């Protein structure tokens, strides 16, 4: 009886030991897989933070900058290859980017061409938004055409009809274009364009957005493409949008 009990004890102990060994091997495999996933994710983020379209295909490239990027060192931005910059300027009927004036002035000092962006609000009248833009963005002969950023905003639940949006947007464009002396660029996001088909209803140059792959959601080919919204540059905090112009002659 004692011998049998001892044998059973040894068997149980061996089984427990084997189970622990298998569990340890499994844990090592899971841990190794987790480390591998982290490494791959890190490599993907590293690549995304540095990728820009081929300069040979798109020789004119630039950045999108806002107050979110902190105090920007424009010499570093130019050294990174930015020929131009679109800077967030105004938002709706009363918002203004607190770094707009500084960013625009400092970019010009180092020879980077500058254009202003207005973030259009579905909750505000076009005339009030135009007044905000005109009040804060001076008319300059050397400025790039103004951009109207069209996207949904969690602060604004309104969803006007397409006819009303196009009418209000036409009013806004007419007023800011009379001020700047230049035809505007419209920049709808994919979801906004899908719902309102702005590029089919407003005859303006378009700036479309899609990370890493050319966008194809507009009614006609894009003139400017925001190709990567995850770029990190020396001289700017956080991430910047990286943009390219379509070369002349391409469709």
How many helices? The count is 7
CATH topology of the largest domain: TIM Barrel
The major pleated sheet works out as: 8 strands, mixed, barrel
Succession of helices and strands: HEHEEHEHEHEHHEEE
Tell me the count of domains. Answer: 2
* CATH level-four homologous superfamily name of the largest domain: Glycosidases
Structural class: alpha/beta
Mean pLDDT: 89
Range of helix content: 40-55%
Low-confidence stretches: none
Portion in strands? 15-25%
Query: Which CATH architecture of the largest domain would you pick?
Result: Alpha-Beta Barrel
Radius of gyration: 27 Å
CATH class of the largest domain: Alpha Beta
| 3D shape | globular
Quote the distance from N terminus to C terminus: 91 Å
Kindly report the spatial arrangement of strands forming the biggest sheet.
1-2-4-5-6-7-8-9
Number of strands: 9
What does this structure look like?
It is a single chain. With 251 residues, this protein is an alpha/beta fold. It has two domains: 1-48; 55-245, Glycosidases (TIM Barrel, Alpha-Beta Barrel). 41% of the residues lie in helices and 20% in strands. The protein is built from seven helices and nine strands; from the N terminus they run αβαββαβαβαβααβββ. It has helices spanning 2-48, 74-79, 100-109, 126-136, 162-180, 190-196, 198-201, and strands at 61-65, 84-91, 95-96, 113-119, 147-150, 185-188, 205-209, 224-231, 240-245. The chain has an eight-stranded mixed β-barrel with strand order 1-2-4-5-6-7-8-9. α4 (126-136) packs parallel to α5 (162-180). The longest helix has 47 residues, at 2-48. The N and C termini lie far apart (91 Å). The mean pLDDT is 89. The chain crosses the membrane at residues 30-49. Keywords: Membrane, Transmembrane, Transmembrane helix. This is Lysozyme. GO terms for molecular function: lysozyme activity. InterPro entries: GH, Glyco_hydro_25.
């Amino acid at each position: 009886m004692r011998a049998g009990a001892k044998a059973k004890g040894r068997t149980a102990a061996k089984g427990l030991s084997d189970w622990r060994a298998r569990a340890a091997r499994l844990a090592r495999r899971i841990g190794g897989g987790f480390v591998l996933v982290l490494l791959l994710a890190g490599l993907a983020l590293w690549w995304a933070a540095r990728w820009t379209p081929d300069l040979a295909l798109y020789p004119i490239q630039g950045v999108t900058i806002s107050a979110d990027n902190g105090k920007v060192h424009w010499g570093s931005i130019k050294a990174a290859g930015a020929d131009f910059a679109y800077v967030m300027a105004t938002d709706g009927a009363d918002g203004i980017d607190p770094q707009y004036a500084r960013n625009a002035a400092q970019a010009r000092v180092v020879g980077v061409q500058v254009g202003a962006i207005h973030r259009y609000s579905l909750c505000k009248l076009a005339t009030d938004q135009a007044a905000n833009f005109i009040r804060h963005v001076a008319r300059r002969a050397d400025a790039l055409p103004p951009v109207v950023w069209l996207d949904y905003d969690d602060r604004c639940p309104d969803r006007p009809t397409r006819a009303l949006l196009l009418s209000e947007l036409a009013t806004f464009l007419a007023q800011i274009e009379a001020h700047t002396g230049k035809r505007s660029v419209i920049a709808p996001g994919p979801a906004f364009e899908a719902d309102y088909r702005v590029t089919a209803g407003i005859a303006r140059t378009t700036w479309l957005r899609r990370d890493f792959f050319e966008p194809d959601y507009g009614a006609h080919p894009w003139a400017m493409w925001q190709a990567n919204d995850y770029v990190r540059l020396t001289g700017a905090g956080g991430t910047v949008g990286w943009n390219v112009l379509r070369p002349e002659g391409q469709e």
